[in-house]
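Continuing the batch. This is chain 6 of the set; chains 1 through 5 are on the previous pages. Same settings as before, nothing changed between runs. Recording input and output for traceability.
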Amino acid sequence: MDATIYHNPACGTSRNTLALIRAAGIEPTIIEYVQNPPSREQLSTIIADAGLTVREAIREKGTPYAELGLDNPELTDDQLLDAMIATPILINRPLVVTPLGTRLARPSEVVLDILPADAFKGPFTKEDGEQVLDQEGKRIV
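Output for chain 6:
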């Protein structure tokens, strides 16, 4: 299966998501979006395909969101997209694209919705010790 992850290696959620994809036996295309941001058109498509609004796709924490005045409710989607392209750290992560769909994997186990359910053969535990998959590779709810 093809998969693409818009990844930030400094982000634990992004690292956990990448590890889950690999645990499914998939080696995804990894785009470190801070250094190699998607085009405006690609970003717009990814956001729409994930079922998000542009505002829902903006990362506030640890970014210049407030300093740039992006909390202004009068800003248009076009203005918000322009800010995200100009300052890629504002793109919330990780965004994952597979043939089964597109998701903002927050929390990381959201990625399981767009990976083959039968791909997992054993347990998976996140960096913080939270177990996501049981011994049979089934999602723990």
